[in-house]
Design the sequence.
């Protein structure tokens, strides 16, 4: 029986396993010594292959963090997914560039499907059996990507999808709200599951102790039976991370996730820690 059976579920998910050695080590430490109960693996990440065995051996439930944007190249060659890359075979760095190109009809859905499927193959070959699926920079909210993600999840028996939410009211946040509601309807029609509440987008890269404790309390106050809190931990000594200029405070998030305050916040809440695989027990 799942440890969350009969209780409310909190998934503390660490993103980007495979990005760098320090991110991989930080995620595993945040699971071993902290409250991280789930991660998502980045098949295109330069450090994934070297750290995949440690991930599988840790027993940390793992989802697929599909990427068709960002600093790292696709799994497939540029000639196999020409509409996803530029003349040098690189993905767009930002979701904004991808969305603009997709809206103009310049992204071939079959290229999307081929690359995402190849990334799932990489995870499978490494021994990862995904508990859920999402996309780098939350691009799975975009309808054409959402279609591929949901179809692949059904085909590969991946039971859950991340549902990205925001509490803000900026123009971009209004788009996130609309796309998130659309994705939720699509996911539920497909027979897949999503957490009932989620946080982490608004706090991305800056989840210090105070924000972490406050986020857990805020999720508890929703009364939701299930919730996800997304985090980005990483070890301080990680020179490979310099190429990712995201402004994230990975070491601060790692220390927050491993802090006594984080554990106490979970204990005070009505949640039990678990993974996306545990969502089925709440149906």
Sequence:
């Amino acid at each position: 029986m799942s440890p969350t059976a009969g209780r409310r579920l909190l998934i503390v998910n660490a993103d980007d396993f495979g990005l760098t050695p320090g991110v991989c080590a930080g995620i595993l430490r945040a699971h071993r010594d902290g409250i991280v109960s789930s991660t998502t693996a980045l098949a295109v990440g330069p450090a994934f292959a070297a750290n995949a065995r440690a991930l599988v051996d840790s027993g940390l439930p793992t989802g697929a963090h599909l990427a068709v944007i960002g600093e790292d190249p696709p799994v497939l060659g540029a000639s196999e997914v020409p509409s996803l890359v530029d003349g040098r075979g690189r993905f767009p760095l930002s979701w904004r560039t991808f969305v603009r190109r997709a809206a103009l009809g310049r992204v071939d859905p079959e290229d999307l499907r081929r690359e995402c499927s190849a990334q799932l193959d990489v995870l499978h070959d490494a021994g990862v059996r995904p508990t859920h699926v999402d996309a780098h920079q939350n691009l799975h909210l975009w309808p054409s990507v959402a279609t591929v993600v949901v179809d692949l999840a059904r085909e590969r028996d991946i039971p859950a999808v991340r549902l990205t939410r925001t509490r803000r009211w900026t123009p971009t946040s209004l788009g996130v709200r609309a796309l998130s509601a659309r994705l939720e309807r699509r996911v539920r029609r497909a027979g897949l599951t999503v957490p009932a509440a989620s946080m982490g987008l608004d706090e991305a890269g800056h989840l210090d102790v105070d924000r972490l404790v406050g986020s857990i309390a805020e999720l508890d106050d929703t009364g939701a039976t299930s919730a996800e809190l997304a985090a980005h931990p990483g070890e301080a000594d990680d020179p490979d991370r310099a190429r990712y200029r995201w402004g994230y405070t990975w070491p601060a998030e790692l220390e927050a996730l491993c802090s006594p305050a984080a554990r106490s916040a979970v204990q005070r809440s009505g949640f039990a820690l678990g993974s996306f695989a545990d969502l089925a027990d709440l149906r």
Notes: The chain has one domain: 8-282.
